Amino acid sequence: MRSGVRIGVDVGKVRIGLARSDPHGMLATPVMTVQRGDGDVGAILEQAAELGAIEIVVGLPLALSGGETASTQDARDFAVRIGTGTTLPVRLVDERLSTVSAQRAMQASGRNTKRSRPVIDQVAAVIILQHALDVERSGGNPPGAIVGTDEGQ
Top-level CATH class of 6-146? Predict the structure, then answer.
């Protein structure tokens, strides 16, 4: 397992959830929610720099079948935008059901999902990043595909 902080990103049409890992790559925790639009990539890169991140992990929304969804290309394009603004590796990782899992976790904790939408985005980012950390820890290889490679585009 590589050491170093990773940033997890859940790309939405309105909001972007951010999470971070500890320096040992064991545990993901929520950081913040960024409004989608002007300055969104800058805010993510600022957090990455402030936390000394070694890479950025962006969730790739795929259908349950593994096929593309309406949001898949949007997430790919957003990951490319992040990648153009940094020298850090940007990885795309499968995020199937992360938002659904986040909503269920919020409901289980007694929170109203409608009023908790910004928090749900952060929880989804935590789920995406934690999955990536777990995959790397169990398999020994970094998860997903790097943006800019044939697989990551």
Answer: alpha beta
